[in-house]
Design a protein that fits this description.
about 40% strand; alpha+beta; Thiol Ester Dehydrase, Chain A; 6 strands; single chain
């Protein structure tokens, strides 16, 4: 799935859009998303809220896992938060682990503009027999 197609399909991801997350680039088994940190993303400690980081990583994961044209739904995810940020832009880069079959595994790194790792996310999807994504 190329970048324009991914943007069109995932424009229906209303929560990610509400958060201000954008798809930077997409290819088979890969996606990079971005989020510019705004006041609305900060928690009481004045760092980006974990849910905002998770949503950024989750959209990259969703696009990468659905890039083969077959509906893939998350069955397990895990995230580790490594650093807090209060400003700037974050990027989530999702990559496929191995050749996906019925189950697909993905690694997602969330970094800042300088390439420093902010969070690590990994997820597994189940691929549906019917394609209802497109």
């Amino acid at each position: 799935m190329d970048t324009e197609e991914a943007r069109k399909i995932f424009s229906n991801d209303r929560f990610a859009a509400l958060a201000g997350i954008e798809i930077v680039e997409s290819a088979k088994g890969y996606c990079k998303t971005s989020l510019t940190i705004e006041e609305k993303h900060l928690n009481a400690a004045n760092v980006i809220q974990g849910g905002a980081i998770f949503t950024l990583a989750d959209l990259a994961f969703a696009v990468a896992s659905n890039s083969h044209g077959q509906l893939a739904l998350a069955i397990n995810v895990n995230i580790s938060f490594l650093r807090g940020k209060s400003s700037g832009t974050l990027y989530a880069t999702a990559s496929e682990v191995g050749e996906p079959k019925r189950l697909g595994a993905y690694d997602v790194l969330v970094t800042d503009e300088g390439g420093e790792i902010i969070a690590r996310f990994n997820g597994m999807v189940y691929r549906m027999k019917k394609n209802v994504l497109r």
